[in-house]
Specification:
By secondary structure, the protein is an alpha/beta fold. 21% of the residues lie in helices and 25% in strands. The longest helix is centred in the last third of the chain and has 14 residues. The strands form 5 sheets. The chain has a 5-stranded mixed β-sheet with strand order 1-2-3-4-5, with no helix packed on it. Strands 11-12-15-13-14 form a 5-stranded mixed β-sheet, with helices on both faces. Helix 5 runs parallel beside helix 6.
């Protein structure tokens, strides 16, 4: 077992009863950890006076209780000259997994001693720290994101880290565009995004839930179809229910909508129907939900948005929005 023992700004102070007491720089946090199955006395003073405590809910998820913690702070990993900006997120995380430092040390040494150009393929990145650490050691790194890297993915984080960290200031970053879920799902449904659309993520992991709600209300009042990313997790379903209520109130239950699960994959499934009938229990994190506009039409199993050519150039009327024919 490798131990991340080179930290000066992070340490686990104690563990007991499904929780761990940690020091992150100048601040102590209490967070849940299901691997802590022992029941030992909580004698350290930090247990009673942490800067913040994350309480797990029996219904899933949880919430922070703050005592004296800034909205954002920094810690340093001095061995590699890395600085990380931390903030508490709604699902107990701080934006960094300090145990990964042992991996950073290992591959940084390998890269520096290789004596030849090294290329690294990173197929999983949660914080971007490993990608930039490998690049800072001299490697050329390709970090793969699902969909398009610039849409609710990792490209923006890399630019943000480069702007913050002196060790990364001179690293070149090149973004290669991909196909985001909205495009893949729209193709599976027909052509429902013809006249512009809005994209909203329902995840409140990085964006406060109240900000998500404001975005939903603003879009619901517009004439744009909306694609809902990250609509619901196994324990995180509240914002999906609220989003559907917001759009039913603004656009009515008869507006056309759809969802696609596992878009572009062999197990892809789709549903098209009225907003009032959308089976929300079938929606998960592998699903993209699309709520149409007044111009959205369904015909012969396809969902599409009338482009406007029929009204302008043809003598007959364009199809009216209807849920018939699905």
């Amino acid at each position: 077992m490798w131990i991340a023992e080179n930290w000066k700004d992070y340490e686990v102070l104690d563990t007991s009863k499904g929780e761990k007491l940690e020091r992150w720089g100048d601040y102590t946090l209490v967070r849940p950890d299901p691997q802590v199955i022992w029941d030992t006395p909580k004698t350290l003073r930090g247990w009673k006076r942490p800067n913040a405590h994350y309480h797990r809910s029996k219904r899933g998820g949880g919430e922070w209780e703050f005592f004296d913690l800034p909205e954002q702070w920094s810690i340093h990993y001095q061995k590699l000259g890395l600085t990380f900006q931390l903030k508490p997120f709604s699902f107990k995380h701080t934006g960094l997994f300090p145990e990964q430092a042992t991996n950073w040390d290992w591959f940084s040494e390998k890269i520096k001693k290789a004596g030849r150009p090294i290329k690294v393929l990173n197929l999983f990145a949660y914080t971007g720290g490993a990608t930039l650490a490998a690049a800072a050691a001299g490697a050329t790194v390709c970090m793969v994101c699902s969909g398009d890297p610039g849409i609710l993915a990792m490209a923006g984080l890399l630019f943000e880290l480069r702007a913050r960290e002196q060790a990364f200031r001179d690293l070149p970053i090149r973004v290669l565009p991909g196909i985001t879920a909205a495009s893949t799902a729209a193709a599976a449904l027909g052509a429902p995004l013809q006249n512009g659309f809005s994209l909203v993520s329902l995840s409140d992991l990085l964006v406060p839930a109240d900000e998500v709600r404001r975005n939903l209300r603003a879009v619901a009042q517009s004439a744009l179809p909306v694609t809902l990313y990250n609509p619901a997790g196994r324990k995180r379903r509240r914002l999906l229910a609220e989003a559907l209520d917001i759009f039913r109130e603004a656009r009515g239950g008869d507006i056309l909508c759809a969802f696609v699960r596992h878009a572009g994959r062999p197990e892809e499934t789709r549903w098209i129907g009225r907003l009032a009938d959308l089976p929300a229990d079938d929606v998960d994190m592998s699903t993209l939900v699309l709520i149409g506009s007044a111009r959205t039409v369904t015909d012969r199993g396809a969902l599409f948005e009338a482009r406007g050519y029929a009204e302008k150039y043809l003598d007959k009327d364009a199809p009216a929005s209807t849920a018939d024919g699905r």
